[in-house]
Amino acid sequence: MTRPDPADLHPWIAGYLTPYTGRTRQNATQYLRRWETWCGQRGTSIEDATRTDIEAWRAHLSARGVRARGIGAALSPVRGLYLWAAQSYLITHDPAHLVRMPRRPTRSQRPWLDRHQLRRLLDYVDHAGDPAMRAAVHLWSLCGLRPAEPRQLLISDLGTYEGRMSIGLSYRKAGGADRLTVSPPVEAAIRAAVAGRGRGPVLYNENTGTALSKAIARLRLIRILDAARVPHVTPYGLRAGFITLSLEAGVPERDVMYAAGHSSSAQTAYYDRMRHTIRARAVHELTDWLDLTGTPGVTPMSDVPATLPP
Predict the structure, then answer these.
(1) How far apart are CA 59 and CA 247, in angstroms?
(2) Rounded to whole angstroms, how far apart are CA atoms 255 and 246?
(3) Is 141 in the same domain as 246?
(4) Structural domains in the chain (count)
(5) What angle do CA 201, 203, 207 make, to 5 degrees?
(6) Model-level pTM?
(7) How far is the CA of 46 from the CAs of 15, 26, 98, in angstroms?
(8) Do residues 181 and 164 touch, judged by C-beta distance below 8 A?
């Protein structure tokens, strides 16, 4: 995506976006440009917009079928813009202060693969003859990378750490660069994708001679999922599976949080699709630990009188 020229931005938007970079800046710029256009259509400006204007925009997005997650993503930079303006003494009252964010589900609703389905997928992709997608699937499902991160990975980002292959991620959503070591299956997939090349992208499209694009990766993933006879999932679904299955395997939540590039454990918990199962298991494990089931002094329900004494 081409980064907008700061000279083309409204002075408030340019000022608010000053500390932001990368995808965060790009997304916020898009939403704030839409907000500016919306204000113009209502005959006002972003400087004179009121809470009513913001609430009307929220209702407009909802009427167009935008879900809670999308509405929240659109409102967040708008709220940030007016908080910045108030703190910069450009306005005396923050019109977005009382605008409530839409309630979002506490768990990700994305489909994911269980351990058996994931093993079937990995076994298929290892022999499918598509080295770039083999590496992509392994990086999404066994390293928990975000969808774009494998496509941005360069051969120059590969290295070693304590005898293992490592990958350098120049920018992560949580902030800063990161370096992860990979497991042997992921290393094998990366080496097959690189195939002796000394530079360029790790995920190489042999038809175009360029990095694998988002659209091509999506189409190839659908074909692979169909051929492997597993449910359709997105790269985000594979990432959610990495988080869920890692926690199910007993990996400490703190370690999963760092591997996934989350800034807090709350984000990790959001993608954990087995949290309800863990909670249920805790109930039974405590009962077993206390050795209450079937022990003297614990009255079976069949022996409890229908009417309890006062």
Answers:
(1) 38
(2) 9
(3) yes
(4) 2
(5) 95
(6) 0.63
(7) 14, 19, 17
(8) yes
> pLDDT per residue over 65-101, tens digit each?
998 888 998 999 999 999 999 999 999 999 999 988 8
Q: Could you report the per-residue pLDDT of 258-281, keeping only the tens digit for each?
A: 777 766 666 666 656 555 554 455
- Looking at the fold, whether 40 and 135 belong to one and the same domain comes out as no
The domain containing residue 211 runs over which residues? 115-270
CATH assignment at residue 19: 1.10.150
- Examine the domain organization and report whether 154 and 261 are in the same domain: yes
